[in-house]
TrEMBL record:
It comes from the Bacteria. This is Component of SufBCD complex. Keywords: Membrane, Transmembrane, Transmembrane helix. The chain crosses the membrane at residues 20-41, 78-100, 106-125, 146-165. It comes from Falsigemmobacter faecalis.
Length: 175
């Protein structure tokens, strides 16, 4: 058998009817809203409730470590990384929405909002790296989580609407 004919039969490239796509979408946004700049959100809520100074120092230290790490990555290879990411996103958008490739549509609907949250993360990391106080770090983490959740809700809504449209527009016979 020809491998190019066998591959689409084994792997379902029609992503919007695939359960694994929806699981990946849910897990991606769940993790993005739980780990805010690398800090687990349950640790932040525990620190707010208890007011324990050690937990406050831990959160501040963890946020500073992740902020320095992200800023270092951006400084070391930011231009190349930005160019490669935008080239990939452009390729996915053109292949998906220009040529109708469903796998590229699904990946674009996953990755474009994720890149928006990474831009917000970079901006928040710059503020933390500049020497934000502990209270300011908590406010920054809360605000960042809010915007990540907002982007996630919009992305899930748009993806589900587009997926339903794609599923309804395909006939039973596959035409």
């Amino acid at each position: 058998m020809d491998i190019l004919r066998l591959l689409p039969e084994i792997i379902d490239f029609y992503s919007f009817s695939n359960l694994w796509f929806w699981i990946a979408l849910a897990v991606m946004w769940s993790r993005a809203s739980h780990f805010v700049l690398g800090v687990p959100w349950d640790l932040v809520t525990r620190a707010r409730r208890s007011g324990d100074p050690q937990v406050l120092r831990d959160i501040t230290a963890l946020a500073e470590i992740h902020a320095r790490r992200i800023c270092h990555i951006a400084r070391a290879g930011g231009a190349v990384l930005t160019g490669a990411v935008f080239a990939l996103l452009t390729l996915l958008v053109v292949l998906g929405f220009g040529y109708g490739l469903h796998l590229a549509q699904a990946l674009a609907l996953l990755l474009v909002p994720a890149m928006l949250t990474s831009v917000l993360s970079r901006r928040a990391c710059l503020r933390i790296e500049a020497g934000a106080a502990a209270d300011e770090t908590f406010r920054l983490l809360s605000r960042h989580r809010f915007f990540v959740q907002l982007i996630g809700m919009i992305a899930i809504f748009v993806t589900s609407m587009w997926g339903m449209y794609q599923n309804l527009s395909v006939s039973i016979l596959g035409n």
